[in-house]
Design brief:
Number of helices: 8
Radius of gyration: 22 Å
Helix content: 10-25%
Number of domains: 2
Structural class: alpha+beta
């Protein structure tokens, strides 16, 4: 029997909604069968918690007396954008201090603000008739800022590759430290808990979808950058990087437990974010897709030591990856995850409790994202 968003929200408001995480629902469907479970279950919650480099925050500091138009801005010595308006800025997560050896960047500024810490603001401007001031040097906290919202152009990658290194030297990548001669392999996905692997064709996720973002409430604003659909699927889900989401949320609601600045050795700064997306069980087909388990989700092993292009060497399930090792042509390779499965579980669990307590309703998307999309690559002009 089909359900509607309003019927599910009415049950949420009256605290009667039946909610399971994407991890829990696998056994529920095995015990009850898809038909009965689809009738009983209203929402499945998903979660992921890992590095999401394409993230940042818009901040408005308010006007000083006399006022200044900030064109050169530093937050804890991290250069941030001065090209917006008089006292607005965008803090990119991967922005670095002028001394990269400090291992501190925009992601850490965002984390420190959410954690309630004081941030050093130093800004300069050209001085104009209406913005006469040329310099300001002060300290701010999140409470001092008018608006502060996370805006992330590319989060929640639908799937991602497995990284290894066939060369004779250690290399340092956004997938972590890769030891020579395939002594290790790294991956980054919550697998069976991951939001876009439980709704692989985005039937219930689109513009306006209400989400858990870094411990607060957020929304899906658009398709994420590098969004594509032309990826091979196994068991109904892609085996490589595919769809992504652009997300927004109020930093003043967030919890630093779900928002961590990272310094990835040899690569640079990134931001780990906890994201949870509820999936309304409108029918049994949607529930069936939420039952996918780690042994049914596959990723591609690729060689990160190659300077151009990464071809599939083999593919492995997330169950194999989480076992701690995989085998390639008779060679045993140690595996490790850059994303936190326990963190993803915590995100899905907290979102579940919000819904069960009647504190979080679902939104029907106001716009669905493209069903077909290809990714363009940058071409270079040769003289």
């Amino acid at each position: 029997m089909a359900k509607t968003y309003e019927e599910i929200n009415e049950k949420i408001r009256s605290k009667r909604a039946v909610v399971y995480t994407a991890e829990e629902i696998i056994d529920i469907v095995k015990k009850k069968g898809i038909e009965k479970a689809a009738e009983e279950v209203d929402v499945v919650t998903t979660g992921t918690f890992g590095a999401m480099c394409s993230s940042g925050a818009f901040l408005n500091f308010g006007h000083a007396t006399p006022p200044i138009r900030m064109t050169d801005i530093r937050l804890n010595d991290v250069p941030v954008d001065g090209g917006l308006a008089a006292v607005d800025t965008f803090v990119g997560a991967t922005s670095l201090t002028e001394d990269p050896a400090k291992g501190y960047g925009g992601a850490h500024v965002i984390e420190d603000l959410v954690a309630g810490k004081s941030i050093h603001l130093h800004a300069w401007g050209p001085g104009t008739d209406c913005y006469v001031r040329k310099d300001i040097d002060t300290h701010i906290t999140l409470d001092d800022i008018n608006e502060a919202y996370l805006y992330n152009p590319r989060n929640c990658y639908q799937n991602y590759g497995i990284a290894t290194n066939t060369s004779g030297r250690t290399i340092y990548t956004y997938m972590g430290k890769l030891l020579p001669r395939m002594k290790n392999a790294t991956y980054s996905s919550a697998g069976q808990l991951s939001p876009l692997l439980n709704d692989p064709h985005l039937e219930t996720i689109g513009m306006g979808t209400h989400i858990f973002l870094a411990g607060g409430e957020g929304y899906v604003t658009w398709q994420g950058t590098q969004y594509k659909t032309n990826v091979e699927e196994v068991n109904g889900v892609p085996i490589g990087g595919c769809r992504t989401l652009a997300l927004i949320g109020d930093m003043k609601q967030m919890n630093a437990k779900y928002l961590r600045g990272l310094d990835i050795t040899g690569y640079g700064i990134s931001l780990a974010i906890g994201v949870g997306i509820p999936i309304p069980i409108l029918n049994k087909d949607i529930l069936q897709r939420c039952c996918i388990s780690d042994d049914q989700i596959f990723a591609q092993l690729t060689d990160y030591s190659l300077p151009t292009g990464r071809k599939e060497m083999a593919r492995y399930s997330y169950a194999e990856l989480r076992s701690g090792s995989i085998e390639y042509e008779g060679k045993k390779i140690r595996t490790s995850s850059l994303s936190s499965y326990s963190g993803a579980r915590a995100v899905a669990g907290e979102l579940k409790s919000w819904i069960e307590d009647g504190d979080f309703e679902l939104n029907k998307p106001v716009l669905q994202f493209p069903k077909t999309a290809k990714l363009k690559t940058l071409t270079e002009d040769w003289l």
